[in-house]
Amino acid sequence: MPGRAEEQKLLAIASAAMLAPSAAAGRFLRQFYAHVAPGDVLARTPEALFADALSLWQQAQARPPGRLNLRIAEGPRPARTVIELVNDDMPFLLDSLSAAITGEGLTLRLAVHPIVAVARDAAGGLTTLYDPGQAPASAAHESMMRL
Question: Which DSSP string do the residues of the chain spell out, in sequence order?
Fold first, then answer.
């Protein structure tokens, strides 16, 4: 049975998911925050949770097969940089990025890194986001990160 903080986290995520423009975007938001610590979720408003997840969801809509989709932008607060990437899932990707960031003397404040099962069309357009455990064997597993 989930503890109180986890229950509050789930309520915050549900509130944020209600802002999603589609059922698929709402499912992605739930997958996006599923493994994030309750304190990191509860420190943000549902609107901020939604905005961060939606930004990465939009980034994931088109990705040519086998290519990295990367966006680096200044975050909402001064001296914050946001890195979003969508890539084929591969071992040690988050570890390598974290080491590169800290190796430059920077601080990684939060890494949200769901690995999601998807289907894409031949041009790389996202056609299906599968629920965890429901993907067919043909589904691609992609790392979607927001650092």
Answer: ---HHHHHHHHHHHHHHTT-SSHHHHHHHHHHHTTS-HHHHHTS-HHHHHHHHHHHHHHTTB--TT--EEEEEE-SSTT-EEEEEEEE--TTHHHHHHHHHHHTT------B--EEEEEE-TT-BEEEEPPTT---TT-EEEEEEE-
pLDDT tens by residue, 49-101: 999 999 999 999 999 888 999 999 886 666 688 999 999 999 999 999 999 99
Count Cα neighbours of 108 within 13 Å in the Cβ-side half-sphere.
18
Distance, CA of 15 to CA of 27 (rounded, Å): 12
Structure tokens at 116: 């999601």
Q: What tokens appear for 109 in the block?
A: 């404040």
Angle between helices 46-59 and 4-17 (to 10 degrees): 60
pTM for the whole structure: 0.91
d(CA 136, CA 63): 20
Q: Which residue has the tokens 């802002």?
A: 19
